[in-house]
Amino acid sequence: MSAESARTWLAAHAPELRLIEGTASTATVADAAAALGVEPARIAKTLALRVGDTVLLVVARGDARLDNQKCKAEFGGRPKMLDAETAEALTGHPVGGVCPFGLKTDLPVYCDVSIRAFETVFPAGGSRTASVEVAPERLAALVSLRWVDVCKLPE
Fold first, then answer.
1. 155 lies in a domain?
2. pLDDT at 93
3. Residues forming a β-bridge with 85
4. Per the structure, how many domains does the chain have?
5. CATH number of the domain that 30 lies in?
6. Average pLDDT along the chain
7. 7 lies in which domain range?
8. Nearest one of 65, 22, 61 to 40, comparing CA atoms
9. What distance lies between CA 83 and its chain's CA centroid?
10. Strand 54-61 to 109-112 pairing
């Protein structure tokens, strides 16, 4: 799966978007920001969570943190990050490359309002060296069930 499934999905659903593939790691927010030459906040990290019996993905800005109270109000429970093995088994993407494109399992995806602060953001592209540049509204239209407010920004 990985970058190839993201590439295939993008070709079918958003042919105007291209996979940015490099050799430098984009596995962490800091690495991705350095590799792409953008501020860390513009990296759109995809968080793989379990809330009760439900597994879901939240796409949030790179410097945001999940707010447990907001998550509980929005999703009905406290979020727990999936371990790396489970995240890869369900998404088809390795941790550090998890993205909302070309998922192995049909999972609900939510975009956090935090990414709306930017003209474009950079979610991963299915591998630890691939990304995509996309406008937040376009990203949400492609993959998100709805916008949510479940993060807090740094002070």
1. no
2. 96
3. none
4. 1
5. 3.90.960.10
6. 95
7. 2-149
8. 61
9. 16
10. parallel
